[in-house]
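[agent] plan:
  1. take the single chain provided in the ticket
  2. run structure prediction with default settings
  3. attach structure tokens to the ticket
  4. add a short note for the reviewer (M.T.)
[agent] executing step 1
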Amino acid sequence: LFLSADPARSENLQLVLSPGTSPGQPAPRAYVFDNRAEAQRALPATPTWAVRSTATGYTAEARLPWASLGL
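[agent] step 2 finished; step 3 output follows
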């Protein structure tokens, strides 16, 4: 997921979610790549997220405070 207050700018947050379906990595995990301006990096960018298996794959949802994008 790429999140940005202004898509014309390169400042963004990238959330990478993995459901943990690989035998070598069975636990769900998340990574945050923080490409925000230095001043915004003081704001927390920790997502709350969950993932569950379905009959056809998985469903994931994530929440991130709008304040993380300076909104």
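[agent] step 4 note for reviewer: The CA atoms of residues 39 and 70 lie 10 Å apart.
[agent] ticket updated
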